[in-house]
Amino acid sequence: DTEVTQTPKHLVMGMTNKKSLKCEQHMGHRAMYWYKQKAKKPPELMFVYSYEKLSINESVPSRFSPECPNSSLLNLHLHALQPEDSALYLCASSQIGGGNTEAFFGQGTRLTVV
Amino acid sequence: AQTVTQSQPEMSVQEAETVTLSCTYDTSESNYYLFWYKQPPSRQMILVIRQEAYKQQNATENRFSVNFQKAAKSFSLKISDSQLGDTAMYFCAFMKLDIYGQNFVFGPGTRLSVLP
After folding, report:
1. Which of A35, A53, A89, A104 has the smallest CB count inside 10 Å?
2. Which of B104, B108, B109 faces A45 most closely, judged by CB atoms?
3. Structure confidence at residue A19 (pLDDT)
4. How many CB pairs under 8 A join A and B?
């Protein structure tokens, strides 16, 4: 199984809503990542979890709250988002160390904030 | 900080022809990795090919090959015998392994269209 599964695939939410994005992998990877990708732009790193601990936060606003409940699951909790937060949110996972360099990406959640 | 530049926002190629996508990068690191990822309309980022900076030999993966010029900090992708399924956005990426995992820096992308 070399899949990273993201749900939902599409999400429309109002600025006062609270929603969560979910990401799951069963490859035994101990690093998991959230990226934000605006239209026609490359992915930009938001958060990195290593061994279920937040290791990198790229100055992301607090209305985005990541959570890593276990080594297979990564969530992104959303609250009070702005229309400019509309984007494709990609999850990825990889091993740590050992020279293994491949990261596996999910298909993303396309988020629209209205 | 690392930067990755792709100077061709869009390219097109006829089916079965060969096309080369350009990528340059800037870094002061000596040990790093370079990747080409493709992102088709399905949105998933798919690894095309990778190159370890310490290896002089250019990586090859079936119809995909790279021309890695470390001194020039250039990393171009050649696609031979282009197929309709190669139509996608192609991102060049720099990656340095650290204790947290991987830290990718992506270029702005090149949109490739393969024409029938």
Report:
1. A53
2. B104
3. 96
4. 67
Alpha-carbon distance A33 to nearest alpha carbon in chain B (angstroms): 9
Tokens matching residue A39: 């239209």
Q: Which two tokens stand for residue A84?
A: 């400019």
pLDDT in tens, A54-112: 988 888 999 999 999 999 999 999 999 999 999 999 999 998 876 667 889 999 999 99
Which chain B residues have a beta carbon less than 8 Å from that of A43?
45, 91, 104, 106
Q: Could you tell me if A71 and A52 are in contact, meaning their C-beta atoms sit under 8 angstroms apart?
A: yes
* Nearest in space to B99 (alpha carbons), one of A34, A55, A61: A55
Q: Would you list the DSSP string of A3-42?
A: -EEEE-SEEEE-TT-EEEEEEEE-S--SEEEEEEE-TTS-
Instruction: Select from B90, B92, B94 the least CA-distant residue to B110.
Output: B90
B45 and chain A in contact, CB less than 8 A: yes
